[in-house]
Design a protein that fits this description.
Largest sheet: 7 strands, mixed
Radius of gyration: 16 Å
Structural class: alpha/beta
Shape: globular
GO molecular function, one term: S-adenosylmethionine-dependent methyltransferase activity
Protein name: S-adenosylmethionine-dependent methyltransferase
Number of helices: 7
Keywords: Methyltransferase, Transferase
Order of helices and strands: HHEEHEEHEHHEHE
Number of strands: 7
Distance between the termini: 47 Å
GO biological process, one term: methylation
Strand content: 25-35%
Organism: Novosphingobium arvoryzae
Length: 210
């Protein structure tokens, strides 16, 4: 195994687990994840960070997907600790291994930044949702301020290599809207105590539009 492969397999999952468990990010998860109900799918479920926030009284089944073997280990352990059966599979957002119209809710938190093709991933999330199903999301992305965007563009090439392909400059609400969802934005802001180039957050719920 080369150094690059070792880093991707062992260091990146732990780095993401730590970064994505920061207090400001956890507060956003706490706002978004409990909205999930019915048959639920979580993209980027590796790490199991969202598991404590699901309401088992509202969720009838839970499925998840992540490309990281180490992340899947964490997710399955978290599901086991929660005490519910979970169908958690390896896979990539551009080709989700579940059928059309399978889910009532899709949860996507801090994942669209690192998929290879954001637009295709959003099309896949729409495909697996039932008509009227909801995409619940919290993501970081392109800042509204020109000065911050300039720094995002400068830092992004190095950041992607360090953080498992994470992009800093991708749009959030606009991308969800363009994928065929009716977007209800719940909030947007810079995260306190986080550098602005990494701290612009947008979160909301989006209904699969017909």
């Amino acid at each position: 195994m080369g150094l690059g492969s070792w880093y991707e397999e062992h260091v990146v999952p732990r780095f993401i687990q730590c970064a994505c468990s920061a207090p400001g990010i956890m507060k956003l998860r706490e706002q978004v994840v409990p909205l999930a109900s019915g048959a639920v799918f979580e993209i980027g479920c590796g790490g199991g960070i969202n598991q404590p926030f699901y309401d088992p009284g509202k969720v009838t089944s839970f499925s998840g997907m992540d490309p990281s073997a180490k992340g899947l280990e964490y997710a399955r352990a978290a599901a086991s600790a929660k005490g519910w059966a979970a169908d958690i599979r390896p896979g990539f957002g551009e080709a989700i291994p579940f059928g059309d119209a399978s889910f009532d809710s899709v949860v996507c938190t801090f994942t669209l930044c690192s998929v290879h093709d954001q637009a295709q991933t959003l099309r896949e999330l729409r495909r697996i949702l039932k008509p009227g199903g909801r995409l619940l999301y919290a993501e970081h992305g392109r800042a509204p301020d020109a000065g911050v965007r300039k720094w995002q563009g400068r830092i992004e090439p190095v950041w992607k290599r360090l953080a498992g392909g994470c992009h800093l400059t991708r749009p959030v609400n606009g991308a969800v809207d363009q994928a065929g969802f009716a977007v209800h934005a719940l909030g947007q802001r810079y995260t306190p105590k986080v550098p602005k180039w990494a701290g612009w957050m947008e979160w909301g719920e989006a209904v699969r539009a017909e």
